[in-house]
Amino acid sequence: MTRLPRYVGTALPSVKPAAPPRTSPAGSDLSAEQIVMAYHERTKHHYHRYAASVGYMDWATQPDPFRRYEGASLVRLPFSERGEALPYWQLYVTDSMAPAPLSVDSISLFLRYALSLTAWKRVHETTWSLRANPSSGNLHPTEGYVLLPALGAIHDRPGVYHYAPKEHGLERRADVDPSVWSALMAAFPEGSFLVGLSSILWREAWKYGERAFRYCQHDVGHGLGSLRFAAAALGWKLFLLDRVDVTSQLLGLDRDTDYADAEREHPELLALVVRGDWASDRGICLSKAVVSQEAASRWYGTANVLSPEHGVDWPVIDEVAAATTNPTTAIDEDFSTLPSEGELFEPPVRSGAFTAERVILGRRSAVSMDASTAISAATFFRMLARLVPTRDGRSLPWDAIPWRPRIHLGLFVHRVDDISPGLYALVRDPEKVEPLRQATGREFLWRRPPSCPRGLPLYLLKEGDCRALAASVSCGQDIAGDGAFSLGMIADYIDSIVTCGAAFYRNLFWEAGLVGQVLYLEAEEAGIRSTGIGCYFDDPVHEVFGISSRDWQSFYHFTVGGPVEDKRLTTLPAYKLEKIDERIKGKHWIER
Ligand SMILES: Cc1cc2nc3c(=O)[nH]c(=O)nc-3n(C[C@H](O)[C@H](O)[C@H](O)COP(=O)(O)O)c2cc1C
Predict the structure, then answer these.
(1) How far apart (Å, rounded) are the C-alpha atoms in residues 300 and 302?
(2) Which of 100, 211, 417, 540 has the fewest CB atoms within 10 Å distance of its CB?
């Protein structure tokens, strides 16, 4: 099995983490909301104590990053050329391209852009893969599924498929009766299909212990973003579905016999992919009765075991997972008071540096930043404007989710031309400016930066050099201070949980992951890089922004800037396996 070098991935605490607890704190009489809040508190990192984890890498139990279903037939997908010429900026221009027909080629490209491998990296004898979707610690807890109609080279009847990224192939998990498929998809346009994500929580818990549930949810958010951008590259739309209680059944995750000793997959989300312009009511769901019929289909394959054994169990992860598994999101919010595209981008972006393919498949995390590259104010404003949904509800990737922004940014600006270094706030929902002003430090200026587009809700809070501060609250990671800017994502936490229910805890992380995915792609387009930062000191971040109430909580960090390439690493292509096997005869990543 491939070992990840220590410097790859989310930082492991350098201070001793809390010892694994013997018992879970959550009693059965706690409400789902209380379980969520208790989990969030106990998984905070503090300067003096990190969230509980084993605190070292137990290489003997390192989970296999590739799930396979033995006994399920594998269809290898072709490598299509179709997307190569599409400029990245055009992804954002609604309805600017004809939707691709549903075919094996378009499904292949969709999955390639969303979840495939994008490179292998090697240093000395160690090799590991990277994917289109980023992952905390590169552990990739997220598994992808598609539910497709009968489709030429794939199968002569509808089916449920697990995506195998190493092979860029589809494992056929179930045949679906054509009449059941028609009933399942009856409310949606012809040629629509479904995509699902699950998490193998153990993959993250292996390294990160109790905080791992948070990281799994970030990864799902990134995955949702990468699916949305992949769909856009084909001219397709993607909508998060409501009624998540059917996800397990639909994807076969509840089939005990198919997992035996293998690690279970936790249902996360289902999304509908439609070709063309389909104005849906938000809060779309599937018929539970029909899903039950689908579950009665013929299923194939048994899941592989990912670790020979599991050292420590983390019961709070199971508890918070159970407390946040909820039948509905039941949200359909009005976007009409958000800014228009014309107010956010002055002028609208109609040119750019790279193709969509180059940006999506070239996306990488910076391992370190150069502490010198500055970006222009125009680039800075454009990146931030991409994070604000437009009032028509159609801007990418925000059209995939039915709720108004609940994640706002507390920015540490270091190197942006013509913009004073200091602390800033991007209030992604302008209606939250006043509540945030009330919740944050009294001394803050709340002043609009010069030449900021009029619809961009960006405010200077305090001028000053905050490079050391940014690194310090990001678990001492220099990348947070050495870039052009970094940020904490401040969630409208308690109000969201109270209004939308405990399950919305996940949605907050998904939204944070979506913000991160946009930043990753925008940084590529700008010729720089970014990195998600899951390791940060929660309450010290709140202190920086003068937040004393639990209402607002930091959910994720990010940094954007000029990267320093690690010259020790060799990059190998994602899929030309035979040739590379010949050359390096490495035993690490040859198919088993
Ligand atoms: C949720 C999340 C948290 C992350 N946290 C950190 C972090 O704290 N420090 C870091 O250096 N990288 C962090 N990363 C970057 C990952 O290590 C990186 O995505 C992974 O190694 C895969 O590399 P790639 O993004 O180039 O594909 C994080 C990524 C994600 C998605």
Answers:
(1) 7
(2) 417
Distance 367 CA to ligand 1 centre (A): 9
CA distance 425 to 488: 10
Q: Between these two residues, 207 and 584, which has the higher pLDDT value?
A: 207
Q: How remote is the CA of residue 184 from the centroid of ligand 1, in Å?
A: 37
Alpha-carbon 319 to chain mean position: 22
Nearest Cα to 403, choosing from 333, 339, 337? 333
Alpha helix stretches (DSSP H) within 6-140: 32-42, 104-115
> Mean pLDDT of all residues in the chain?
91
> Which of 533, 538, 554, 571 to mutate for ligand 1's pocket (most ligand atoms within 8 Å of CB)?
533
Gap from CA of 204 to ligand 1 centroid (Å): 12
**What angle (nearest 5°) sits at the alpha carbon of residue 321, between those of residues 197 and 218?**
50
For residue 488, give the 3-state DSSP assignment: strand
Ligand 1 atom nearest to CA at 9: 17
Per-residue 3-state assignment (H helix, E strand, C coil) for 537-576:
EHHHHHHHCCCCCCCEEEEEEEEEECEECCCCCEEECCCC
How far is residue 184's CA from residue 289's CA, in Å, rounded to a whole number?
9
Structure confidence by residue, pLDDT tens digits, 523-576: 999 999 999 999 999 999 999 999 999 999 999 999 999 999 988 999 999 997
Q: Which atom of ligand 1 is closest in space to residue 535's alpha carbon? A: 8
Angle of CA points 247, 249, 251, to nearest 5°: 65
Diameter over CA atoms, the chain: 66
Q: Which atom belonging to ligand 1 lies closest to the Cα atom of 222?
A: 31
Using a 6 Å CB cutoff, which residues line ligand 1?
Answer: 8-11, 130-131, 134-138, 215, 218-219, 222, 364-365, 477, 479, 531-535
Strand ranges inside 132-178, DSSP E: 142-148, 159-164, 169-175
- Output the 3-class SS for 243-270: CHHHHHHHHCCCCHHHHCCCCCCEEEEE
Q: In the 8-state DSSP scheme, what is residue 3?
A: P
pTM over 0.90, yes/no: yes
User: Which residue type, as a one-letter code, is found at position 523?
Assistant: A
What pLDDT, in 10s, does the model give residues 155-164? Answer: 999 999 999 9
Determine the residue of 199, 363, 474, 531 to mutate for testing ligand 1's pocket, defined as the one with the most ligand atoms within 8 A of the Cβ atom: 531
Coil, helix or strand at residue 277: coil
Atom of ligand 1 nearest to the CA of 536: 8
Two tokens, residue 81: 């050329």
Query: Do 118 and 132 form a contact (C-beta atoms < 8 A)?
Result: yes
